[in-house]
Amino acid sequence: MADPNQTSDHDLLRRMQGGDEGAFLELYRHRQGAVYRFALHMSGSRQVAEDVTQDVFLALMREPGKFKPQRGSLAAYLYGIARNCVLQHLEQRSLHVPLASGEGADERVTPEPLTPAPDPLGDLTRQEVIERVRQAVLALPALYREVVVLCDLQELDYSQAAASLGCAVGTVRSRLHRARSLLLKKLHASPVGVATPIP
Q1: How far apart are CA 173 and CA 131, in angstroms?
Q2: Is the torsion defined by CA of 134, 140, 143, 148 positive or negative?
Q3: Hey, what CATH topology would domain 110-199 get?
Q4: How far apart are CA 87 and CA 105, in angstroms?
Q5: What whole-number distance in Å separates Cα of residue 22 and Cα of residue 124?
Q6: Cα 66 from Cα 79, distance rounded (Å)
């Protein structure tokens, strides 16, 4: 059975290619949040995530014909553009995500609780765990970080992630296995509040 979102994406893209500005706006509203979250998880910076999201949709607007539906979904295509943009931003700015408080700490993303917790100590512990996991993901090398973000955080299946990254499904599986192993090692090795880079 076809994914209704995919059909809707294709229809919106077709209308957009025909000059329908409303179709572009609808497509942007539908997909921008996921692209932003992907860029945020990859970079650890809200500013980079905003820039990347803008770059992705500008690229789509300028060259909508580059998307080939036979190669995968539009979402996977957008993640692929976002991935390249994030890597360019990180390379251009030599952005190093701070692993401890200090200069530039205001760039870090502070996780927000999903629901108010009646237990302040329990809430603090959860926040520390979330922060440790976030820092561990950000410390992964980019090729491992991107598969964790796509498969575990964005919940793409292996074939969608492979289409986004332009690699084989087996490559996604092996990178994800290695990334999860590195994350476990990192989380078991560092106590709460102490971050050490993954080799």
Answers
A1: 26
A2: negative
A3: Arc Repressor Mutant, subunit A (1.10.10)
A4: 21
A5: 44
A6: 14
Distance CA 96, CA 74 (A): 30
Going from N- to C-terminal start, the domains of the chain cover 1-96, 110-199
C-beta of residue 55 within 8 angstroms of C-beta of residue 32: no
Each of the 199 residues of the chain gets a pLDDT tens digit; together they read: 445 565 588 888 888 888 888 888 899 999 999 999 999 988 888 999 999 999 999 998 888 888 888 888 888 899 999 999 988 887 776 544 444 444 444 444 544 444 444 566 666 676 777 777 788 888 888 889 999 888 888 888 899 899 888 899 999 999 999 998 888 888 787 654 444 444 4
Angstrom distance (rounded) from CA 198 to CA 140: 6
Rounded to whole angstroms, how far apart are CA atoms 118 and 182? 34
What pLDDT sits at residue 43?
87
Considering the domain delimited by 1-96, tell me its CATH architecture. Answer: Orthogonal Bundle (1.10)
Rounded Cα–Cα distance for residues 159 and 178 (Å): 18
149 residue type, one letter: V
